[in-house]
């Protein structure tokens, strides 16, 4: 191991020495500001018949270098692929060829030359000029093993993207998915808006917020956990259809489907209910799949999932009856519910009611069965502080959560627009907070005031964009669809000790 580190250190020193030599020769690449390239590698390959014999200029990173005396072969990687470069001393000139020998794998170069095909049939560029645009003084991972360590891949995403082309394809597809979501909503008359990321109240969801301090105002502020309450204020103000896609922040645990900073979209439409939000959700997800993948039937980690509408509708109590064998239609008191919960091994927390038990039992026993797209409805009022009550059973709300592959990917409801009921639910949430629930909702008096001004009947929807992208790109971890996921800092002192 020590010998390997010694060799690496020697190679790093050698690269710096080459840079010094280039600088002495007035060839410092870092003084170059631009290079006018004419084509990408993919275009040259796809249109070879019309490109053959033409002069082109390409730019990219050297990924391999094979020398045979007066002739060298290089692989140049640009943003769209790779192409072989044929470098010959006679064509470049003796002086330029000697300078070219100072270039390393990882360096960024610009190449001018003629498109041709080698005797082995590989489309290549016969270089007449190779100019160093940036010197890599680090060493790329060895090509056969590449960059495989997940932790290092996420920390050094720039190297991950260089060494693993499929990673770049995932993020290109991510961009297309987000574009398709916007297109679906824009085509239906929704207006994209911006709301505050920093707020004096963390509202719109039950989650633990990140707290910071605003020095000028001398107040604590919160990174948003949701943008719901601001968007509903816009419906009060007269917008009929609004949405916002952006970052949300929740100071909670991390696992394969949770990152503290994540992308979410929330949308609100006046004069519709949660049934319309169901139709919008299933049609949006199917549209995005067809637009980006060509089909509403996808494969995720070997499982076939059919996103074609309509999706299954399942009441939460019916799910518990089906998967846990408990019938809540005959359990009407908190005491009965808590007794059942204990019997099923559910942790009893202070202030728990029948509604809380239903929610906990659904999470514990039912979610794991919901692989195909399913709308779960009938959420208890206690866990839905912003949703309208079901008129047939006021213990429930007109809310749904959409599940695919056992994950919740969307949450929606007929929005509560009764200011008196809303204020009381905020009060109830404050009681939960006093009992130790860090995720309980805060009181938002201005939002209550907005409801008093008048919110029309409204349907609202939130979709976890990262989870949807995980499904559509067949990625097993949320870190594989976020370019720079949250990571624990590396301790510098430990690193120094390791190096010693």
From TrEMBL:
Its main location: cytoplasm. Mg(2+) 2 binds at residue 408. Its cofactor is Mg(2+). Residues 171-489 form the Aminoacyl-transfer RNA synthetases class-II family profile domain. One of its GO terms (biological process) is lysyl-tRNA aminoacylation. One of its GO terms (molecular function) is transferase activity. Homodimer. Belongs to the class-II aminoacyl-tRNA synthetase family. NCBIfam families: lysS_bact, PRK00484.1. This is Lysine--tRNA ligase.
